[in-house]
Design goal:
Order of helices and strands: HEEEHHEHHHEHE
Number of strands: 6
Strand content: 15-25%
CATH topology of the largest domain: Endonuclease, Chain A
Largest sheet: 4 strands, mixed
CATH architecture of the largest domain: 3-Layer(aba) Sandwich
Radius of gyration: 26 Å
Helix content: 25-40%
Number of domains: 2
Length: 167
């Protein structure tokens, strides 16, 4: 699920201890959280979650009931604090297309999609020089042409000067 969210262009935090219930995935700038619930442990009504425990049934039934109550209280606290929450059940993670649709509806457009440059070639040319060589060295220093450098070795790739750093 985290890979899917990342592929959709969203960035997130995990298990924010300052929020009620320590939500699994947190989008602070959007004030949204995703709560991932286990079908059995959190009492989902799917086939796996609806099956009753065989061993120590009284204990586990009470435990699952407490988990459901706790989850409802957590969701209410988050809503009261102004956070939107999306509950994703363990059984829903298998259908990646449907999960992606739900996440897109919940989260909206990613900043990466919104901030995408209109002229991708212009952005590429800002990083890649006319001759296909990067304008910036791996250490952040600007690459100089032979004319700018004054270096007569003729090897443009070696023309990095410590005094010139990209701002």
């Amino acid at each position: 699920m985290r890979r899917l969210i990342y592929a959709l262009g969203h960035r997130y935090s995990l298990h924010a201890s300052d929020l009620p219930g320590k939500p699994d995935i947190v989008f602070r700038s959007r004030r949204k959280v995703v709560l991932v619930h286990g079908c059995f442990w959190d009492g989902h009504d799917c086939p796996r979650g609806a099956r009753p425990p065989k061993q120590n049934a009284d204990y586990w039934s009470a435990k699952i009931a407490r988990n459901k109550t706790r989850d409802a209280v957590t969701a209410a606290q988050l809503t009261q604090m102004g956070w939107a929450s999306l509950v994703v059940w363990e059984c829903e993670i298998r259908d990646k297309d449907e999960l992606a649709r739900r996440l897109r509806n919940f989260l909206g457009d990613s900043r990466a999609a919104v901030d995408k440059p209109k002229n991708e070639r212009a952005e590429r040319d800002a990083v890649i020089g006319e001759r296909g060589k990067p304008n910036i060295a791996h250490n952040g220093k600007e690459r100089l042409d032979d004319e700018q450098c004054g270096d007569k070795r003729g090897n443009e790739a070696d023309c990095y000067h410590p005094g010139i750093v990209e701002a």
